[in-house]
Amino acid sequence: MSETLIKEESFHVKLPDGWSLIDASSDEGLWVYQSSSGDERLTVSIKYFTNEPEIGQIKESIDAYIAIRKQSSTEIHQGISISPDEFKEYPAAFTNTFMEKGPKDRFAANKTIASKVGVANFYYESYQDPKDFMEKVKVILSTTGFAS
Q1: Least C-beta-crowded within 10 Å: which of 1, 45, 94, 141?
Q2: Separation of alpha carbons 122 and 37, rounded Å
Q3: DSSP label at 128?
Q4: How far apart are CA 85 and CA 40, in angstroms?
């Protein structure tokens, strides 16, 4: 599968060929990419810190962001189920990944990265077969990066 490298000022990700940017507002920290079929989308949102935080504040920020993200998902989509978190700690950053299964074969994967720069969220959603979805999740979310 050929890929397209998306490289913005503060983040990067590889997407399969045929994807395009359909909405962007760097002032608001929001980028939306869509597959050519229209049944897949990746939304990248970034909240920058105004002052460089301590490592404990970075951890608090990612925890708060994840709680809000999960609450938002369950309020928007009735009957959604959310997987357990996959939380990782690095010397200067944290990541959290979880999956969502919603109604009408809607699947989503959420990866959040927090560093001294801010909090970046990569939200991939799809209406594809679960096996295809998981294969793409592995490819897309493993290629994400955020400025640190």
Answers
A1: 1
A2: 20
A3: S
A4: 22
Distance CA(104)–CA(81), nearest Å, equals 13
Pseudo-torsion of CA 139, 124, 148, 6, nearest 10°? 70
Give the length of the chain: 148
**Residue 62 in 3-state DSSP?**
helix
C-alpha 79/C-alpha 71 separation (Å) is 13
- The answer, as to whether pTM is greater than 0.90, is yes
Backbone angle region of 29, left / alpha / beta, with phi > 0 → left and psi within -120 to 50 → alpha: left
- Beta-ladder partners of 11: 146
Is residue 127 within 8 A of residue 39, CB to CB? The reply is yes
